[in-house]
Design a protein that fits this description.
By secondary structure, the chain is mostly helical. It has six helices and no strands. The chain is 60% helix and 0% strand.
Length: 85
């Protein structure tokens, strides 16, 4: 899933419109639409704002992990995976 698809999924799961997200995060609706359709890539600052807004890790939004609250460098998860082997 791409960054845009992740952002769209998070918005839909939150039950919000693009307009609501845009107003809350102080950006235009067309920009939110372009991010979600992968026509434009959010800057690091915007990714951090989305991460905080949706309570999702940057690693999740940037496609490094598949769980919303997971982190690529999550040592606890890594240790658990190692134990299982």
């Amino acid at each position: 899933m791409s960054i845009g698809e992740r952002l769209r999924t998070l918005r839909v799961e939150a039950g919000l419109s693009q307009k609501q997200v845009a107003e809350t995060l102080k950006m235009s609706k067309p920009i939110v639409s372009q991010y979600e359709s992968n026509q434009r890539t959010p800057s690091l600052g915007k990714l951090i704002r989305f991460s905080r807004f949706y309570n999702a890790s940057l690693d999740y939004i940037c496609e490094n992990v598949d769980e919303k609250g997971a982190f690529l460098g999550d040592i606890k998860a890594l240790l658990e995976k190692t134990k299982d082997k």
